[in-house]
Design a protein that fits this description.
Blueprint lengths: L2 H4 L8 E3 L2 E3 L6 E6 L4 E7 L3 H16 L2 H4 L3 H17 L1 H12 L3 H22 L6 E2 L7 E9 L2 E5 L5 H15 L2 E5 L6 H13 L7 E3 L4 H9 L5 E5 L2 H13 L5 E5 L4 E5 L5 H13 L9 E6 L4 H13 L19 H16 L4 E4 L14 E6 L4 H4 L6 E5 L5 H8 L4 E2 L1 E5 L3 H10 L4 E4 L14 E2 L2 E2 L4 H6 L2 E9 L3
Parallel strand pairs: 7-8, 7-10, 8-9, 10-11, 12-13, 12-18, 13-16, 15-16, 18-19
Antiparallel strand pairs: 1-2, 3-4, 5-6, 6-22, 11-21, 14-15, 17-20
Helix pairs in contact: 2-9, 4-6, 4-7, 4-8, 5-6, 6-7, 11-12
The chain binds nicotinamide-adenine-dinucleotide.
Nicotinamide-adenine-dinucleotide (NAD) binds next to helix 9 and helix 10.
GO molecular function: oxidoreductase activity, acting on the aldehyde or oxo group of donors, NAD or NADP as acceptor
Pfam families: Aldedh
Keywords: Oxidoreductase
Length: about 500
């Protein structure tokens, strides 16, 4: 057993509610695996509705009666978040090791995710003391002064996907706490451990009053209970389209409607134009698709290659995919890890079968399990795929790239992509600025990469169109999503 698991600074069989580590009210537990080997590495509680209620009540009391919102200044919240960023930084090696074990992510990737996590807490700390309203000069009656003040939304319930446990936690929790909200957080059931580590660090800073941050663990049951709880003011959800739609329906059926932000799936197109640097682009496409073993909402999974370079490009793509190093995630040479669990592994193998048998696509490389253990699958590339094939239109969430049939005109691509069910991300590889301008103006995608792929910044908003969801994470837009304006109208002649 690895060293980090034997020296966890928290008891993973407990949950963090109201500033304390407590026993769950439920008797059920969840097994936590290492996807590299499929071995069990921990057992955590599977929370029930009673645990959830305690967590929400704690967040509700902290919001309405506690000092976080009612006594702390923005500068105090800023300093608390900065102290938390430093605490994460000081424990980063432990967290990296734990995240890599629990997710199977290559250790180098986890290091980048921890850089981002720390940066996000510092970035959003900077907004905590800059909450601004507007003064609107009286228009018709000079005695009426109108102005807005922005106040925190309230209790926020977060439901996360498994694919970037600590980093997506930072995307959500850092802006929410900076805005003065209180939080109940549920990680993906497969990946609870770094969320618990985070709760331990937050507690250790001594800067966050009880009830400001609470964790519940488990899957559908406790997630649904969080969505259904009447004392929750906002739900921030990241996950699949099917669950996202269920969350939207549920939030509309509770006694109080509440705001919702849903970050859902993707089937993101990339376009290789005739003037592209083919060697560079092949590598960018492969990392754009295979990063995080393809379990990436913005993965580049539908590739358009211009007819004039199609045949030249395929061998380069094949070589780039086959060059990826699949090995023990804790080895610094490893470039791609396993799928997260058996369900995801089976799903990806089933899509590879569909690609071959139903879509009749040609296999360029991969298509098999790898390493003979755990949940490993080879980087897989199909080509000559119809743009309407299932593997070209459905989110697979694994290392599977569909190179579509060759195209002649960028307008054709744009017209077809208008019908893409998703609109999370896209990429184009060319130096022709007329094509770049056409593509970036016409495509309804939340993020568009030009001659690169997957780069994200704390200050640039991220989110989707259509079935990729609504609401934005990162950037000022995300922070603003945890605030609501109140309008104050003051009769100064009174
Ligand atoms: P999922 O929908 O199965 O689960 C997501 C979360 O919802 C989990 O925590 C799960 O326990 C919870 N959940 C399940 N049923 C629920 C219910 N009825 N009510 C409330 N919560 C419920 O998704 P997943 O397999 O964990 O994640 C993969 C998906 O997430 C992919 O579709 C991916 O594209 C998407 N994703 C999107 C983004 C983004 O920013 N757009 C980022 C990461 C992942």
């Amino acid at each position: 057993m690895s060293s980090i698991l034997s020296r966890l600074p928290f008891d993973e069989t407990l949950i963090y509610i109201n500033g304390e580590w407590t026993k769950s009210q439920a008797s059920q537990t969840c097994r936590v695996e290492n996807p590299d080997t499929a071995e069990t590495i921990a057992t955590v509680p599977e929370c029930n509705a009673r645990d959830l209620d305690l967590a929400v009540q704690a967040a509700y009391s902290a919001f309405h009666d506690g000092p976080w919102v009612n006594e702390y200044s923005g500068a105090q919240r800023r300093d608390a978040l900065l102290a938390l960023a430093t605490a994460i930084e000081e424990s980063r090696q432990d967290i990296e090791e734990l995240e890599s074990l629990n997710t199977g992510k290559p250790i180098n990737d986890v290091r980048v995710e921890l850089d981002d996590t720390i940066d996000l807490f510092r970035f959003f700390a900077g907004y905590a003391d800059k909450v601004e309203g507007r003064h609107i000069a009286a228009q018709t009656n000079r005695n009426l002064e109108g102005y807005t003040v922005k106040v925190p939304v309230g209790v926020v319930g977060f439901i996360n996907a498994f694919n970037y446990p600590i980093c997506l936690l930072a995307w959500k929790v850092a802006p929410a706490l900076a805005a003065g909200c209180t939080v109940v957080f549920k990680p993906g059931p497969q990946t609870p451990l770094t969320t618990q580590y985070f709760a331990h660090l937050l507690h250790k800073t001594g800067r966050f009053p009880k009830g400001v941050f609470n964790v519940v663990l488990g899957g559908v049951g406790v997630g649904q209970a969080l969505v259904d709880h009447d004392l929750v003011d906002k739900i921030g959800f990241t996950g699949s389209v099917a669950t996202g739609k269920q969350v939207i329906r549920s939030t509309a059926s509770t006694r109080n409607v509440r705001c919702t932000s849903v970050e859902l799936g993707g089937k993101s197109p990339g376009v290789v134009m005739p003037d592209a640097d083919l060697d560079k682009t092949a590598k960018l496409v492969v990392s754009g698709c295979m990063a995080n073993a393809g379990m990436n909402c913005n993965a580049l999974t539908r590739l358009w290659v211009h007819r004039s370079i199609y045949d030249e490009f395929m061998p380069r793509l094949k070589a780039a995919a086959e060059a990826l190093v699949l090995s023990t995630p804790q080895d610094t040479a490893t470039e791609m890890g396993p799928l997260i669990d058996k369900r995801q592994y089976d799903r990806v193998l089933e899509y590879i079968r569909i690609g071959r048998d139903e879509d009749q696509a040609a296999l360029l490389t991969g298509g098999q399990p790898a390493l003979g253990r755990g949940y490993w699958i080879q980087p897989t590339v199909f080509y000559n795929v119809s743009p309407t094939a299932r593997i070209a239109t459905e989110e697979i969430f694994g290392p599977v790239l569909s190179v579509l049939e060759p195209f002649d005109e960028l307008d054709e691509v744009i017209a077809i992509e208008r019908k893409n069910e998703f609109g999370l991300a896209a990429g184009i590889f060319t130096r022709r600025h007329q094509d770049i301008a056409k593509f970036t103006r016409k495509l309804r995608s939340g993020t568009i990469w030009v001659n690169n792929y997957n780069a994200l910044y704390s200050y640039l908003p991220f989110g989707g169109f259509r079935n990729s969801g609504f609401g934005r994470e990162l950037g000022y837009e995300s922070f603003d999503g945890y605030l609501v304006p109140k309008s104050i109208i003051d009769d100064i002649s009174y």
